[in-house]
């Protein structure tokens, strides 16, 4: 542990020590299941705490989703607004506009050091226990909540990423071509839709297909840069 060791020079050492002691039980709990050391979690919690202090609403119980969106945009190179609400729904349930400290740490663990299988479940899972919360219909790519990726869903995600790069008519034709390519690669059982098993089987064989429908994970460069802000240990534990 690092009680008494000042991790952030912009915070008063007594304030930081009180903060770390207050949340030590939660850190002890999370260090057993996330891809961070105890000291790394302290740093991640302090980043959260500083974001919360910057919140205009001083009565808020956590950082806002808009603040998290800013972190994703500026710190993790995740800029696809069409996917943001879907990304948030994977980790946070209900109508709350804030993100809890545990959710913050859990999300960063996946984004920065998650295994391929964790990322597969995050991007698209049918009905699994996701970080202690029943995920059911709230996965990123499972837009309709039926456990399948159909052509309508693919069109929704792909069109939003291409429409800004060309005319609407050209974008729609390009999307249709991409849907054919993705379906051919991922529809293992050839039923016209992509199930979770189709998706997982394909991605395990071809990891580059993980984000075939749009970016919902940070780039490798962004991961490296973000991690080095709080630890010199780049790799997994």
Short description:
By secondary structure, this protein is mostly helical. The protein has helices at residues 13-22, 24-31, 38-53, 65-75, 81-91, 101-113, 116-123, 151-162, 168-186, 196-205, 220-227, and strands at residues 63-64, 98-99, 129-130, 133-134, 148-149, 194-195. Helices cover 53% and strands 5% of the residues.
Structural write-up:
With 237 residues, the protein is mostly helical. It has two domains: 1-115 and 218-237, Orthogonal Bundle (Recoverin, domain 1); 141-215, EF-hand (Recoverin, domain 1), CATH 1.10.238.10. The protein contains eleven helices and six strands. The chain has helices at 13-22, 24-31, 38-53, 65-75, 81-91, 101-113, 116-123, 151-162, 168-186, 196-205, 220-227; strands spanning 63-64, 98-99, 129-130, 133-134, 148-149, 194-195. Helix 7 (116-123) runs antiparallel to helix 10 and helix 8 (151-162) packs across helix 9. The chain is elongated and about 60 Å long.
């Amino acid at each position: 542990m690092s009680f008494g060791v000042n991790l952030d020079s912009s915070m008063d050492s007594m304030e930081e020590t009180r903060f770390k002691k207050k949340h030590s039980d939660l850190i002890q709990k999370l260090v057993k299941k996330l891809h961070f050391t105890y000291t790394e979690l302290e740093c991640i919690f302090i980043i959260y705490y500083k974001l919360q202090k910057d919140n205009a609403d001083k009565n808020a119980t956590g950082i806002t989703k808009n603040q998290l969106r800013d972190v994703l945009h500026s710190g993790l190179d995740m800029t696809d607004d069409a996917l943001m609400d879907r990304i948030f729904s994977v980790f946070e349930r209900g109508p709350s506009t804030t993100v809890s400290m545990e959710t913050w740490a859990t999300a960063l663990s996946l984004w920065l050091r998650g295994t391929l299988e964790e990322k597969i479940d995050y991007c698209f899972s049918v009905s699994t226990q996701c970080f202690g919360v029943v995920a059911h219909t709230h996965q990123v790519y499972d837009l309709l909540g039926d456990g399948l990726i159909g052509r309508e869903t693919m069109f929704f995600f792909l069109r939003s990423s291409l429409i800004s790069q060309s005319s609407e008519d050209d974008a729609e034709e390009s999307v249709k071509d991409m849907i054919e390519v993705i379906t051919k690669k991922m529809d293992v059982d050839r039923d016209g839709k992509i199930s979770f098993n189709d998706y997982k089987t394909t991605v395990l064989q071809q990891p580059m297909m993980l984000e075939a429908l749009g970016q919902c994970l940070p780039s490798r460069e962004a991961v490296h840069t973000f991690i080095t802000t709080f630890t010199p240990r780049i790799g997994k534990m």
